[in-house]
Specification:
It is built from five helices and seven strands. With 182 residues, it is an alpha/beta fold. Helix 2 crosses helix 3 and helix 3 packs parallel to helix 4. It is globular and about 60 Å long. The structure holds S-adenosylmethionine (SAM).
Length: 182
């Protein structure tokens, strides 16, 4: 074997292992309709100071909508094709520099600095994510399209009727931590 190819082979091995570590999506891609994206950003009251994560961001439409409101976005998807589409959509909208793209598993990704978390996943994935979300700092808003969060009651909800279907959107706000026990 020619030793000058060794770095290339190691790089290929590294990418192969990294790609294999990403499992198949827990939920298939289905985009949130634009009117529902608007209801989600309204319900979360997204503003310029926010850092908006979309866990399972698909084609990036929610992160793009948040970036258009001046916020910073973090677009996380396990499917590299979705991340490529999201990057392209953000570039076309002129907001790519406001969004971080992560081809990662949403259960493994760090939620550093999150002030808003957007979800359109499934009841099971929401429930599995719930403990991680409940560790976010007080005041963080979580908005889910369609799916609830088990017995964690939302503080607000909205509904968008489209083509004969009601799209529910739910908001949870991380409460202030309880003070020390007396
Ligand atoms: C129903 S789509 C929602 C897309 C986008 N958030 C929207 O509302 O338009 C769910 C997305 O989650 C992604 N996904 C599923 N399981 C995932 C996981 N474990 N980690 C990261 N992304 C995941 C899928 O690839 C898909 O793009």
């Amino acid at each position: 074997m020619r030793t000058q190819y060794l770095p290339l082979m190691l790089l290929a091995l590294y990418w192969g292992v990294a790609a294999a570590q990403l499992r198949s999506p827990d939920v298939r891609f289905e985009p949130t309709p634009p009117a529902v994206v608007q209801a989600m950003t309204d319900l979360a009251a997204v503003r310029a100071a926010d850092v908006v994560y979309d866990l399972g961001c698909g084609d990036g439409r929610i992160a793009v909508a948040a970036a258009r409101l001046g916020a910073r976005g973090v677009c996380v998807d396990i499917d590299p094709q979705r991340i490529a589409e999201a990057r392209e959509n953000a570039r076309a909208a002129g907001v790519a520099e406001r969004i971080e793209f992560r081809n990662e598993d949403l259960f493994a990704t760090a939620l550093d600095g999150a002030t808003v978390v957007m979800l359109f996943l499934s009841p099971e994935v929401n429930l599995k994510l719930r403990p991680k979300l409940q560790q976010l700092k007080p005041g963080t808003r979580i908005v889910s399209h369609w799916h609830r969060m088990g017995d964690w009651k939302p503080s607000k909800s909205a509904q968008v009727r489209l083509e004969g279907r009601n799209h529910d959107v739910f908001l949870w706000v991380i409460p202030a931590s309880p003070g020390p026990a007396r």
